[in-house]
Amino acid sequence: MTEITAPKSPVTSAEFADEIREQLKYSQGVTAEQATAADVYVAAAKAVRNHLADAWFTTQADTVNGNTKAVGYLSAEFLMGKQLENALLNAGLTEQFDEAVKSLGFQPKDIVDAEYEPGLGNGGLGRLAACFIDSLASLGVPAFGYGIQYKYGIFKQKFDEDGKQVETPDYWLNNEEPWGHIDYNRDQKVSFGGEVVEEDGKKVWKPAWSVRAVPVDYLVPGYKSQRVNTLRLWTAKSYDEFDLLAFNKSEYMDAVKPQVKAENISKILYPEDSTKVGKELRLEQQYFFVSASLHDAIRVFYPGQDKPDLTTFPNKITFQLNDTHPVIGIPELMRILIDEYGYDWDTAWGVTQKTFNYTCHTLLPEALEVWPASLIGELLPRHLEIIEKINEQFEAELKAKGVDEATAKDMAIYTGDSVRMAYLATYGGSHVNGVAELHSQLLKDVTLKNFSDAYPDKFTNVTNGVTPRRFVKLANPGLSDLITEGLGTDKWVSDLEMLEGLVPLAQDDEFVKKFAAVKAANKHAFVGFAKDHYGLDIDENTMFNTMVKRLHEYKRQSLKILAVISKYAAIKNGTVSADDILPRTVFFGAKAAPGYYLAKMTIQLINNVSKVVNNDPDVKGKLAVHMLPNYNIEMAQNLIPATELDEQISQAGKEASGTGNMKFALNGALTVGTLDGANVEIRERVGAENFFLFGMTVEEVDKLYADGYNPAKYYEADPRLKQAIDLVAGGTFSNGDRNAYAPLVSDWLTKDWFMTLADFSAYADIQAEIEKLYRDPLEWNRKAVLNVANSGFFSSDRSIEDYLERIWHTGPLA
Ligand code: 26Q
Predict the structure, then answer these.
(1) Which of 154, 180, 304, 599 is the most buried (most CB within 10 A)?
(2) 659 CB within 6 A, ligand 1
(3) How far is the C-alpha of 22 from the C-alpha of 622, rounded, in Å?
(4) Which numbered atom of ligand 1 lies nearest the CA of 282?
(5) pLDDT for 3
(6) Which atom of ligand 1 is least distant from the CA of 677?
(7) Is the domain covering 68-81+117-173+214-234+273-463+803-808 a CATH 3.40.630.10 domain?
């Protein structure tokens, strides 16, 4: 944690080197001669941060004093990735940094690598939040990201000798963390438990215990916007460091109990990325950051006012609820307005409904949070009362709308024993959006159908996007230079639809060859990365085929590994002639939730297929499989630019959007995928002829399910599938042990909830088409160029512009 010192104007590399030396000397206490790469990293981070300070202060002042409504992005996760390169890019200091560290005797890459990646998110939802705050700042929109500074981020993943996932804690704050600025003077009190009593005819909440929420501020610099927004992550501290009475009795453990209880709240990120059970600590976390954030926004926008006019609150800031995780904010704002500021119910409701909007990120019913009412009642008794009252008002409203009783019952926010957070969010806010066209449509038609019927105007779509700064400009400098050369400008970095200007160049063989050379160089670089990080020897003259994402049954890593096994068997059996084999290297990267049994078994299977295949001389040079450990943002930035074929093979109707799919298309990989999530829109834009489509549609899935799905039938019907499953069942990937994967095999043959077996034949068949095209490098790369050229829509800048227009109704600072 550092203080912000004097702001700096643009500097030369020599001056920047002096600034680094100064930080080394006065802040780290080492001389330039003693400094290690880790020291220089911290010093450079602090130096670049100082350069951003001025713009940060002006942005904050303009946010409060201007008359542009701000955005508050409430998210339990922000998966930011490493910060240094991004901060340098946005501060315009990349070249100065490179020269400066060289003059200090270091390689820029070693300094950048010294940063430890913060893992404050699980996957797509957390990374989306990070892309969105980057785009908000780059567009000059005043915004706050609000979340939790977990002490332990997503676990680090290793594999044991059996290929099983082993989780180790991610204590990311073990070393100095130069980006976060802890601000003890802007703390908030967050209370829990106790009871509600009536005093003078008013409800008064008497909480049982409180924690101190202390903000840690991260600068969010915009690209070429001169704006620096704030990511405010709360950390929980105890008010009573020690209970001295207990301590005097030498009961040390008891003495620190309140501290432990308080600090537990921000201790760990939950590693599940879908939910089944409501855990008390998770609700504590949610309420903790949301309550602190709402109070913080009131403090920021009504400074020093005891009796602020909070009816203007929705004109000051609009809060986006990133999934159901922050939805407790709806009753909390009601409580603040009524209990803390004395507003009547109707006024409070008007303000609350105008303040919030809700983004849904799922279609899996089990991932919509439902809290036991008893738990809410115990932890937040006043909120439960408010929720009950919201529900009564809601029922009356539905009745007035003529909604029949049975439907109204299905729509209940509060059922008597539980609270449905997605329903509360839908009723309690102004807008609800899904994250891709297909997903938003399915929300309206299925998941939230009754709500869409009753409140059609609330529903809209905003298709996800990814930031081109991190995922093209920084991750793929070779392609970035080529794009700039092709377009004659680098303005595409902040206006990604300009990539369309590359469409004619796809017909220019020289340009396509240059693209192919960039891809080859990225593959070469990844081979080096994989050697350094994992000790792997990878053949760069093979097709790089990648599937990276969380491990989930619906995402169907099983489909991919079964196809790999089938291919392996075909080579072994000689079913394919040596000449017909297209050499491939298949990369997987995936973390499984620690308690997700089948997901973890799938990881184990992939690891053991990898062991068998990679050590089999019969397939050497033809097929290799690697399960790369600990998939994270850094790996994504290295692997995506090197990938030629990307896998987006979820069961249709299950992946809300996907954002990896966008990153791959933008980096010139071709996609093999189903009509699911944003794949649909990617295919529409890049052209059906430049996308490998296979598998059932949503309608076909529904029909097959309704007709009665029997996976064993598909196992019997396709000998390739049968052979692959038989090899797994027969112990080929478990040293002959036929029981090792029995639960997985039995699930495939008897349940197969996501219809992996039904889509297998189509998936195996399309491989021939893929391989045929790959044998014609010019045509393959022409299609890859067209993927890049037509993916500009998938910039998170465009997503944010859609939110501004459809939901937030605000814009950049003047
Ligand atoms: C909730 C309560 C308790 C414990 C964990 C959770 C929890 C945590 C994370 C539930 C869900 C998540 C994350 C969900 C997620 O990442 N969804 C993905 O969001 C992306 C961005 O919109 C989409 O592209 C993906 O399709 C979607 O799966």
Answers:
(1) 154
(2) yes
(3) 54
(4) 3
(5) 44
(6) 26
(7) no
